[in-house]
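idk why but the lab printer keeps eating my pages so im just putting this in chat instead. protein + indole-3-glycerol phosphate:
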Amino acid sequence: MTLAARLKQDGLSLIPYLMAGHPDLDTTREVGRKLVNTGIAAIELGIPYSDPLADGPVIQRAGQRALDAGTTTEGCLEVAADIAAEQAAPVILMTYVNPVLAYGPERFARDAAEAGVAGVIIPDVPVEESADIARTITAAGLDTVFLVAPTSPDERIVAAATASTGFVYCVTVTGITGSRSALHPDVHGLLAKVRSHTDLPVAAGFGISSAEQVSLLREHADAAIVGSAIVNELDAGRDPGPLVRELLSACK
Ligand SMILES: O=P(O)(O)OC[C@@H](O)[C@@H](O)c1c[nH]c2ccccc12
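predcted complex ->
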């Protein structure tokens, strides 16, 4: 089943995010393997990068810790392969464009596809400049995912939806990743606008950390993406499993 078809299935689903290599790759492998078997729709795996523009403090710190621990793109792809081998939920890589260029775009796309990865999110390629990289990714059989924000004009939403094949990532707050006490005041209007421009699934992310916030997205989004709240659990030395189960029950 394609990533898009999976996310279009029954109601709101959950996509947890892990930073690969935080606190080390063995933990990412172990936690990722467990999480894909909890009923999540997909898992987003971040590749750490030294200049992460859109990352808030929690994800930035996790990325720095991963880099300090010697995490490489090769290592991330190996862990992605181990998680994908569970055959329980698709693995989506989230990476800035520089690590992809450093690795070589063709090689990156081929190795990710070989690892069993389903799709790639590259947040810092403006959709207007995305044609080459998107072609390389889709040629390897991977899905592309582009982001739209509350500030995106209609034509940008259309362009992002046209360039995406897996789902459209709807950033539900203005700014960087990280837990917020409240969702965007017009999150439902924003999601409705994106949905009016595409048949692809629409996933909401940025600032979603609680079961209550997840439940507010029911019937408005196809998936909720939760990053910082999960990274926080790992920072506190806790298994993120219980939080993920709580968030999952809010999807129903
Ligand atoms: O951490 P949050 O607020 O729950 O947001 C998800 C997010 O962390 C994850 O999707 C992500 C991490 N880094 C990114 C950079 C750009 C876009 C998305 C991301």
